[in-house]
Design a protein that fits this description.
By secondary structure, the protein is mostly helical. It has a domain of 45 residues. It contains 3 helices and no strands. The longest helix has 20 residues.
């Protein structure tokens, strides 16, 4: 009986695409705008989307450069 093991090297992970400067700026501007909008939501709207005021405030304080990784695709 043979035991097969798999060790995933860096080639197994999907490479992030390199974004142009314009694309990066657009991405960061989008994050900044969405965080501003999130900060303006009232309690009812936050409840509708399942986010607490504390979570919304914490996300809204995030810097514009902290866009989620999945936005770069």
């Amino acid at each position: 009986m043979t035991l097969a093991t798999s060790a995933c090297s860096s080639s197994c992970t999907a490479a992030k695409p390199q974004l142009s400067l314009t694309a990066r700026l657009r991405l960061h501007l989008t994050a900044w705008r969405q965080r501003r909008q999130l900060a303006r939501l009232d309690a009812r709207a936050l409840e509708d989307i399942g986010v607490t005021r504390a979570q919304a405030d914490a996300e809204a304080r995030g810097g514009f450069w902290k866009a989620p990784d999945h936005w770069s695709h």
